[in-house]
Amino acid sequence: MALKRKALWGAIAGAFVVQAVVSQAMYPTWKKDYSTGNTGIAEGLSVDQLLASMTGLRQMVAGILWVQSDTYFHNGQFDAILPLIRLITWLDPRQMEVYSTGAWHIAYNFTDEQNRSDRRYIPVALRLLEDGIPHNVETYRLYHEIGWIYFHKIDDNYPKAVEWFEQSTSKADVLPALRGVLSSAYLRNGQLDKAVEWYASLEADYKNRFAISENVDDRIQGDTASNNLNNLLIRMASRGVFGQRAGVYEEHSYDTRNPVDLKFTAKIEVVQPKVLRISGNWGIPSAGARIRCVIRDKDFDIPWEPAPSMDYELDKDKTFMMDLLYTQSGKFDRRIDLSRNPTMYPFRSDTVVVEFFFGPRNAPHHIQDKIGWNGEGMTDSRYYKFDEKRGYNALFASFEMPRDMILRTGEYRFEAVIRSPGYVEILTRDQSDLIERVPREPLRN
Amino acid sequence: MSQVFAIAGTTLGEAIRRRVLLIILMVGLAFLIIAPSLNQLTPRGERMVLIQMTLGILKITSAILAVTLTVYLLPNEVERRTIYTILSKPVQRYQFLLGKFLGSVGALTLMIGMMTLVLLVAFVIQQQSFDMNDLGPIIRSSIMLVFQMSLLAAVAMFFSTFVTPVVNFFLTGLVFVFGTLLNPIFESLGERGNQPAMQVITKIAHYAVPNFSTLDISTNAASDAGARIGGNELVYMSQGMLYALAYIGILLILAVLVFDRKEV
């Protein structure tokens, strides 16, 4: 009997070694293919949710929490959404909808009373998307979303947009209609030849596909790429790109050769505490171009790229507002009310900076036809400069005001106005966000 | 061997006749049928939610069935004194244990098979398509679930040789929850953690405790990647089956060693 028991213990030892070896051999595959990915402490889950998540209903719990976060969003409880989204992605890290829609909410939809998004959250949105990438490596979606935030929302860091779009378009499942955006990013990044090459490759690709499949969608995509390529080549020719390369730019009357003098002036008036009226003149008469206006603490500028150590917390003491000023007939005038959102605009810094920026890369095509891709077709005696960081000429004006001024306290209780040199008063409709239009004669029968 | 199969057959028959098991089975089936209507709770694709949710229900129901079925196997025999009749026949104790275990595994396989069938029918009706790319991962997950639950039954069987059914219920439940979280815990504390003592403990646990998370392939069944891994999954499943069989062997031998010295 003792011998039999010894044999059984021997069998146990043997089986133990087998299971341990097999278990360790399986672990790397499990980690790669079957792990839900995120590990950590599930703080914030109720007991029933925790139990459900442990017993295999993680996605369902994540779904319920996602609905809950949507309710918070509609109630404007933005602070409650972030931890919830983190929890959902912990439960179900392969749920791309939460990363993409969550990041869209964070970057675009946390807004003030005048529908300006809270730009302080943009790095948080990027962090959320980047956190989702390791769990969703094989699909284009999150790469595209990150690229889109750099391209469209930040609209000021095109190398990063190009970097992410290059990755998204390299994925097999990228939607055909989204492939062309890489060329747009190349254009804003000043890589004209790359944009041409990409459009040409799309055109060839879809024409080849159509020859095989005779699918009308391939035909449409091929035609779109052809049109985009043709338009781009025409613009390059008309804006003197080929002329410059051939050394004959000075010999022809390109629109970009005779720079328009912007003669930029601005008036910043604090009409009530934290309520500004910003108006001014500039030399671009047609509608469409917008001037970027930033009002921020002097010691706070947003580094758009999330630092590796960045968590989802936000420094609520910092102020950063960005708005795009609509211009028409060479004028702009906008009332910016920051008083109704004290958590977004706390103005704790001693000095506030008001900045105006206009670059050529994100200007509409009809404006670009005049000012060129690098701003060579515009100038300004005071605020025009070559922007080394961005690599093109741009309009940049910056004005500082003390905290007392924006709060209308102390010596600024009765008047708080900054006028740039040469500012000429413009007629505006009182208390309006719009530029005064000259009334037309009524139509007569 | 015929004695083992005879006991297994009797155990299977008893399991099918037990009302409590049938009720659990019916509740599980009912949940599987109503699960598609809960889809609106989630923003994720309908197909994925349906798969994940129904596989989750399948897993929970199977785990409850496995534990409920196994914790009473030995104590009932002792309480009803039928064990004396059986052991007075030319039946070894290990044969009795093995027969009981195989009977409970047979019953579990039957019940999981039924639930999987209902799940597949509900899925095909809900999706209005019969695509093996969708159904394959569900079937593979169910096969692995049989091995997972057999391992759970072996844990319960081992404990039932020396603890009461109520204690056994909680002990087995605890092992199941811990075993289900074993890989995620190892991933966060054993690999990325910065406490050496904790790393050693989680590493030992990773080698020693029955690892149910390794046998769970439902994550992939509910993702788009499910269709992609294909061939690799069969290798992984084979390894998983080998792992489960090895661990079941350990637990059954331990159970035999304990039961051999138990006075009944």
Query: Would you list the SSEs of chain A in sequence order as H and E?
Result: HHHHHHHHHHHHHEEEEEEEHEEEHE
Strand content of chain A: 15-25%
What integer value in Å does the Rg of chain B equal? 20 Å
Low-confidence stretches of chain B: 225-229
Q: What general form of chain B does the structure show?
A: globular
Report how far apart the termini of chain B are: 23 Å
Give the overall shape of chain A: flat
Average pLDDT rating of chain B? 81
What is the percent of helical residues of chain A? Answer: 40-55%
What class do helices, strands and sheet pairing of chain B give? mainly alpha
If you had to describe this structure to a student in words, what would you say it looks like?
The complex is a heterodimer of chains A (445) and B (264). With 445 residues, chain A is of the alpha+beta class. In chain A, 45% of the residues lie in helices and 16% in strands. In chain A, helix 2 crosses helix 3 and helix 6 packs antiparallel against helix 7. Chain A is flat, with a radius of gyration of 28 Å. The termini of chain A are far apart. By secondary structure, chain B is mainly alpha-helical. Chain B contains twelve helices and no strands. Chain B is globular.
